[in-house]
Amino acid sequence: xxxxxxxxxxxxxxxxxxxxxxxxxxxxxxxxxxxxxxxxxxxxxxxxxxxxxxxxxxxxxxxxxxxxxxxxxxxxxxxxxxxxxxxxxxxxxxxxxxxxxxxxxxxxxxxxxxxxxxxxxxxxxxxxxxxxxxxxxxxxxxxxxxxxxxxxxxxxxxxxxxxxxxxxxxxxxxxxxxxxxxxxxxxxxxxxxxxxxxxxxxxxxxxxxxxxxxxxxxxxxxxxxxxxxxxxxxxxxxxxxxxxxxxxxxxxxxxxxxxxxxxxxxxxxxxxxxxxxxxxxxxxxxxxxxxxxxxxxxxxxxxxxxxxxxxxxxxxxxxxxxxxxxxxxxxxxxxxxxxxxxxxxxxxxxxxxxxxxxxxxxxxxxxxxxxxxxxxxxxxxxxxxxxxxxxxxxxxxxxxxxxxxxxxxxxxxxxxxxxxxxxxxxxxxx
Length: 430
Description:
- This protein is of the alpha+beta class.
- 51% of the residues lie in helices and 10% in strands.
- The chain has a 6-stranded mixed beta sheet.
- α12 packs across α14.
- The longest helix has 30 residues, at 99-128.
- The protein is extended.
């Protein structure tokens, strides 16, 4: 970044309202020499750099190093979500000249991303949460019972006092039930984030624990890992420990097949391409997908998500990745390759999936569906599908597949896989 020092000096001088001659005089050099510096034709350092920084009222590091790298990364991440609207090459200049405004932009982008994730999570919850469905059913049942009793009382046939008393009692009890179920539903929908985001199943509890480790379990990467001790030391519920034990035993098998050091080196050599890695190590495709999802997040690897499901479409594991969401208990878009892979058992699938939005989100997905039980003559194989997800892949010329989250929230009306109309308020998208 040192080659931009002159430009930063010029920008800061202009911000301060100083003439080139005035600044040159203040530091004891000629205006022509300062002009060369400002056009990056002379490298400076030492005392002259310190004098210029002092005259401009900034630290020398501000002129040589530019804007804070963390702030720059946040600005670039914010710009990446806006397509071609932002001038990426100007991010350094913006952060240097207006650090306050740059921080505000970065903070707003972060907040927007959080809200978008929250909306997607709530959409998922509305579409598939069994507790919500039960609560709505209870409300509708109570309303129907009250309407039925009221209709009889308001009918043309006269009722004796005993029957009137019974229907009045029914209406009273049903109204109490309606009030209680409505209050429960409101409390459920208005639960604070800490409560509504809490794990609601043993699987989610186990995944929450794994998320704190970055889905990389170094203690299980040894030659003789003690799974039982590792599980016992967690503070999970007993059902969640059983789920975690299942995941850990598979993790150990994969780690023994693809040791961490050699696998990491190969990942960088083959640019994280699953097919090339499977061929290099002579292992099955699903093992490579699971191993890629377990790479340590603090060693420069790209963000990688993974989701697995059974043939019913119910998730059996999910490692999240920015922008990706899918209903837990079925009802998701069937165009995701984790589902379409069931139609091509044991055959790898590679798809570039695109979610709708103001700025469409792209994902490079690899999936495979494989039987998990021994072959037999009297029963069909139980298939299990695994999908690896790379968010925002590099531009490619391969055709993309438009996908959604659920039909209820998807704006694509001309989709051959649509099962129901888009929800109210969802703008159509061709």
